[in-house]
Amino acid sequence: MKTRVEKDSLGEIQIPLEAYYGVQTQRAVKNFPVSGWKAHPVMVDSYVYIKKAAAITNAEIGLLDKKVAGAIIKAADEVLGGKHRDHFVVDVYQAGAGTSHNMNTNEVLANRGIELLGGTKGNYTLINPNDHVNMAQSTNDTFPTAMRLASLIMVKRLLPAIKHFQATLLKKSKQFSKVVKSGRTHLQDASPITLGQEFEGYAEIVSKHYELISSTQKHLAELGIGGTAVGTGLNTHIKYRSLMAKNLSKVTGLKLKPTRNYFEAMQSMLPFMELSSAINNFAVDMTKITNDLRLLASGPTTGFAEIIMPAVQPGSSIMPGKVNPSMAEMMNQVLFQVMGNNHTVMMCSQAGQLELNVMMPVMIFNIVWMIEILKNALSLFDDKCVAGLVADEKKCRDYAEKSISIVTALNPIIGYAKAAEIAKEAVKTHRSIMDVIRSKNIMPEKELNKVLDLVKLTKPGL
To answer: Cis peptide leading into 444, omega within 30 of 0?
Structure first.
């Protein structure tokens, strides 16, 4: 392999000749061969957005030569357009503040900018990674800013998937609105409910989580860029902070603004915990919904079998004809992974000291990853499972009629104690509630049918 020599404050090091990255990136590659996982494309984009906006801002202020700024901006646009992506090579597990990723970005843009100006890679007299690409910046304010941008971008990708899933649940609630079934509490018979009402509840749960996740964008949009090393803004022009928020808004299409307090923005990981926790809470309720659907589809002959899931693959390598709730199982696994990601984010969030949190790289890796897999899994679960659910109306009706809990409707007429005796006898003799009541001549048949009308029992009233 042909190489070139680059030098930093620690000495000289060999760099692959064709690499757009430089000495500090190469040190990181050698220092952190941990997982083989590189920064998510959205995190690469977010950091490049910052460098582009900084070049625009510093040129506007008059601190950066317009020719140099133009080369940096053009190099940034190339990366944002999909080029040079394989030169972002730092492992996600790296030094805590993310300096390696920051320098990887600085070096790639500097070296590509140098080429655009007619120079050769490593000739940092033309464009310097620190002095030009990183002008008025520190890893300590750019990395949390990139985290905010990446989080906002990912949230905007996730929300439509959640909204679509909610719409599917609402559609199913209408489709199943007349399917009467037995309710269940404690996994025991309960008063009647419609399958549509169950799905209506699911849809409202998802709707509330949509609102909670969406609300996290407010704090994520408050940027600490311009805080530099510790929040004081050392080495930045007085106009830099406001102009950076303005220019970042333009290049990203996001509605961004400067934070009220730059020390808070660098010390606290609150916006990321807020987002991670909101997604975790959604995952908790989604686990309940997914488990419910697996339970309702259990069978087909020895379980509930009230709903039928679309078959997507054979369910066994040994039992012919077996079909499993594969999409729901996949959904559960992803939800559990999301909860694990959230725990990592929580541990990282509390691990900062004084002016800086030093666990940011793994924090944003987990946030982006949890959103990515949740978005993908939810869309697949929606399309390949929930949208195709079919109700076994006969089975549902049969369970409802056999449920001992329909006797609850007699409480206002004969009292709780007498109703309980009827329920016990029905269980003991393996008869229906209706049969036991008829045998005791408690009320005329016409009145009995009126009181124990299953559809009416799913609505308010006496």
So the answer is: no
